[in-house]
Each structure stands twice: as structure tokens, then as C-alpha cells.
Amino acid sequence: MSEILVLAAHDGESVKKVTLELLTLARRFGEPAAVWLGSGADAGRERLAEYGAAKVYTADGDGMTDYLAAPAEVLAALVAQVSPAGVLVPATGEGKEVAGRLAVKIGSGVLTDAVDLTPGDGGPVAEQSIFGGAIIVKSKVTKGIPIVAVRPNAVAPEASPGAAALEPVSVELSDAAKGAHITERVVQERSERPELTEASIVVSGGRGVGSADNFALIEGLADSLGAAVGASRAATDAGWYPHQFQVGQTGKTVSPQLYLAVGISGAIQHRAGMQTSKTIMVINKDPEAPIFELADFGVVGDLFKVVPQLTEEITRRQGS
Amino acid sequence: MNIVVCVKQVPDTWAERTLRADDSRLDRASVDGVINELDEYAIEEGLRLAEAHGGEVTILCMGPEKASESIRKALSMGADKAVHLMDDALEGSDALATSLAIATVLQRTGFDLVILGSESTDARMGVLPAMLAERLGVPQLSMASKVEIDGTAITIHRQADYGYDQVAGTLPAVISVVEKINEPRYPSFKGIMAAKKKPVEVLSVADAGIDPAQVGLGAAATEVASFSKRPPRDAGTVVKDDGDGGVKAAEFLAAQKFI
pTM of the entire structure? Predict the structure, then answer.
């Protein structure tokens, strides 16, 4: 069975959930082999085994996690070595960069933002949700080894044991790959909350929240549900919440099990980033707000009354 | 400093966008074209860097005749000149072919710094900056929320979930920007008038030295097998808050097993 290379997203010791999702998808086409850059594969191995990785290729040379172009070079070397049937990466900003570089290196077609992947004639068929989720497209790669960037939360990870045999690979990075490197990682948000694109529940606040201080309400509701916090562009442009938490056309695209839109009118700019959420709840005082068109459950009311009551009720129910 | 800003004309995101039934390609004719929003931030950053360090800002745009409106707008913001790569042979180019065509033009015009928006609002692939850097063999500093240049040293803040990474490289380089980086200026009346006289070089595939066999729909490495409109979501339940809206919302969450 052909190998499918899966680029592991990890923090140096444990893998992110999206990696388990990619392994789950990869098993539909072949034998998943994770690719781990930097140290920590020993620690991360167990989880990869649980989700079906037959092998774990490790590249732990100097600067592997600092050079921006390193992942694409390692993947290109592995592609030449093992001729996989496909390469899967997370459809995050970083992952898509890797996909783009790799596509040029190996002359293969690339598909991004897949929300599902199924076997088809002559390779995987990717389902993509475009124009803010308004249209569903099925695409395939017709040239080279398919490279597909898959959105976090596209599928539920399913466990299935694999050997996850560690196989060190030695890749000499080119001078070109060493052209840009990370000199410092500056942590501004020390948060216990799940990562926005990976979270199964997201609570977002918009213009209606009214100020940076009031975002404490959104955070409180999010914490009662173990959710990530997002914000509409109106809120990030106003400086009420940091830009990296923006959900929408020019921000993150999220696809959680549950999305709560609070004080968000639902301009296309925002809908483009959350329309594929499985269940959508809306709290807004304007009954005409377009966001209600998406709502599975909506409350027309003052968020400053509804949100505290909801948070309290959730906490009460969770406690009992 | 020779700064080139890549600009794409995209359908206005406020309009309803659709794919053409016959060839599954974006229907660009039926909606207004505008400058891709993130590219406006790229133009602004190019202008600021040229103001601070000296040099010239060139707009590079690949697209049909209609894209000349967007080129004029970019010039009216203050860019010095433009190159418009326009050829029927480019129609239907995928990301690989587009990056090949643009990289070929960049090699011809030369550059110290290439600036792009981190993604376009139509395809939203976000792969072009990386593809260009790879083809040009220069460093790529991506998702920049801040750019500093000192001689040939370039440092950026690269947006990350936890804050940012400081990324260092040397010119010539390709950078892509996020909207946090600046506030794009509006064209002034003077700028609009001046833009009419600024040079726009129109290049065909042959002029640019691009192999026509490697671009266009025929060269695409991906294909759309089918597309359909997302079925409308089932109408949900909407309640008016009569003092118990929060409790009702919690009941819904409980019924759906979220709590």
C-alpha cells in the first residue's frame, strides 16, 4: 500500500488535533506516515500510533523548526525517497505555505482548504467550501503527487492502531531554505483556551460587545463551555480584541461543532469564516441581523442580559 | 529600493459570487472587480517603505483588460508605475502557472522586495507568496504584521496564534502581509489625476518570455470535478428574550448535548 505523508503539527512534545484528523483521512487512501520536524517525536509518537501512523519520519537537524522553508524541503526529499500517493498538510497559514513551496519543488498540483477527502478515480477528491461556504466544489489534482491542505476540524479523528516506527531522515537544508528564520517567538496570549481553528466550540463577539473590557463577558461564556474566543472584524479593527482571533474573510476560517455569535450582525466578511460550523447559535438585539439566517438557535435580546444568564445557567448545569 | 507589489483584481466580496456552469470557473464578468483587499495593505506598506528608505514602487498585476481599473487605483494611491501582464493564454491558470508567470516577469523587471497580500478573497489559497519565493530562490517572510528594513537586513513580525514570531532574512525577498500591518490610504484627488499619466507597461506572454504551454487552463495541475450550491440551512428556532433568553439558550445547548 502506498504511503501518504502527513506533516505533523506539534509543539515539540504533543501533536495538535489536526494531525490526528489528517491521519484519519490519510487512512482512506493508503498507509499514513507522519513527518515530524524538530525534536520531541519520541514523546509525540504514542498519539500518532493511536491514530494509525505506520511510520514517523523524523528530521531533527539544526534549525529544522526555525527555517520557514524547512518543512517543504524535508517533504520534497521524502517524496523523492518514498514516492507517496499523496501529501497532507493542515490548511493553516503555515501549512499552506508549505503546500505552495512543495508544489513548486515537485511540480505537483495543490488543493487547499479541503473539508473532506474521498478516494476517486486517479487519486483523492477534495471537497472545498468556497465563497464563504456558499458553494461546494469537488476538485482533484491531475498532475504529480496530490498535495492537499485540509482544514482543521474537517473530520472527527478516529483511532486505529499503527506501528508509528520512528525513521530518522537526514536532510541537508539548502542555502535558499536558510534565507528566512525565526529568531524569537513572542508569546502575547497565555491562554488555557483551545486554539481557535482547532476548537470544537467557538464563542465570538462583535460590534455589539461595545468595548475591550466587555469582552470579559465573551471570555466568561467561552470558559464555561471550554471554548475558544473569536471576534468579528469590527471588534478587532476597533482594537477590542487581538487581531489573530479574527474570524472571517480576512481572518481565520473556523468550522467547529458549535459556534456562538454574540453581538455580530453577520456581514459576509464574517460569515465567510464561520458558515461551515455544524451548529450555530446567535445572540443579537436586532431581529433583522443577517446572522439569524444561519442560526440553529437564536435569541433576540440584549447580550448584556442574555450572556451572563447563559453563562450562569451553563455553569449551574455543568456543576450538577 | 526597487519594490514590486503584486496586485490581484477580485470580484467584490459584497456581491454574490458564483462559478460558471460550463467550465466551473469563477464568473468574473457579472460582478464588479476591486483590488483584493489585502493587496491594498501590501501597496500601503510598499509606499511607506519607499518613503522611508527611498526607491520606487511598481505594481505588478496579472489579469484581463478589466484589471486596468485596479491598476489605476493602485497608482492613484501613489505607486510610481505598473506592469500589466495580460494575455488570453493566461486564462484559467492555476496557482502553479500563475506563480510561474509572475516569477518570470519579476525576473525580468528585477526587484529588491516583492510584497503581496497573504491571500486573495476569491480563491483564498494563500500559496502564491511561497510559490514565488521558491521559484525566485529568495527568502520569504510571511504573514507580516510589521516590517523593518536596515540596509539589506529585513525583519518582520509574523502573526502566530500565541502572538508573533520575529523572522529575519536578507533582501532581495518576498513578503506577504496581514491587515494588522497598517491602514491603507485613500487616493487623493491629486493622486487620481497623477495616476492618469503614470506609465503602465502591458506585457503579453510572448513579451514576458513565458512559455505559453506552461500556463492557462490547459496546463492546470488541478481540476474541478463538480460544484453545487450549499443547500440552505434549515430554519432554526429564534426566541425573543423575555428575561429567560439565557436559560432557553442553555436548554438548547443541553438538548444538543453540548453541556
Answer: 0.92
